[in-house]
Design brief:
single chain, 237 residues, mainly beta, 8-stranded antiparallel sheet, 7-stranded antiparallel sheet, 19 strands
């Protein structure tokens, strides 16, 4: 029902000589693990650290929903539609690549940039690209992807605060900062289902959850996390 993947288990990638350090949650580029190619609609969850002046040169994407969450610093985005934008902590950026788009991602600031980038398989293919930024999304506000059966939830919890995880067949929880416990609702514990022992996650850890059990996240000293609510798996053709 719940599997924890630790931060230090992520595959290390990027190009250190160019100031790019990446940690991959799933198979990516030259790293292939047939048992770890995705979860629900999620096929990439990359933690990126870019030194000042570093970045990814223009490159293409097609038929992916690419969602970016900046942890610290500021991300410069440019794409082949002529759009340029700066993404700041608390913003949600979505690039739906559709029939094809090219973009550049850079750290043009003088401080390090850390961000999380997540790729999901949409439910429709070959449609025109779309782009959106939600500035300073409020805590707990759900962000639904219009081209897939998935919703992103942000949670910023103070010490001891708890939040119910959304109900869905596939749930992916990533801890951005701090620590939290994931545990069943009291009703499940009272009926003997599940375990009273919580799963404790620290920054960079993730939990992959299947099934419809009622679960809560409880902050230990304060925490920020992202939760994907997904209602299907990829279908092609």
């Amino acid at each position: 029902m719940l599997r924890v993947h630790r931060a230090d288990e992520r595959y290390a990638g990027g190009d250190g000589d160019s100031g790019i350090h990446t940690r991959h949650a799933f198979s990516f580029s030259g790293h292939y693990d047939p048992a770890n190619t995705g979860f629900g609609l999620l096929v990439a969850c990359n933690e990126e650290l870019l030194a000042p002046g570093a970045g990814f040169a223009e490159h293409p994407h097609r038929d992916l929903d690419i969602v970016t969450w900046v942890v610290e610093g500021e991300l410069t985005h440019r794409d082949s539609t002529g759009r340029t934008s700066t993404v700041l902590p608390g913003d949600v950026q979505r690039l739906s690549a559709g029939s094809g788009v090219r973009h550049v991602e850079r750290n043009d600031a003088d401080v390090p940039l850390r961000f999380l980038q997540m790729w999901l398989v949409p439910g429709v293919f070959g449609v025109p690209p779309e782009y959106e930024i939600v500035r300073g999304i409020s805590d707990g506000t759900p962000y639904a992807l219009p081209r897939s059966e998935s919703v992103l939830h942000t949670r910023r919890l103070v010490d001891g605060e708890r939040s119910a995880l959304p109900a869905a067949p596939w749930r992916y929880l990533h801890v951005v900062r701090g620590q939290l416990d994931v545990l069943p609702a009291e009703s499940a514990l009272a009926s003997g289902a599940g375990s009273a022992e919580p799963a404790r996650l620290a920054a960079g850890d993730a939990a992959r959850i299947t099934g419809g059990a009622e679960l809560f996240a409880v902050a230990r000293g304060g925490a920020e996390c992202l939760v994907w609510e997904m209602h299907t798996e990829p279908t092609y053709g």
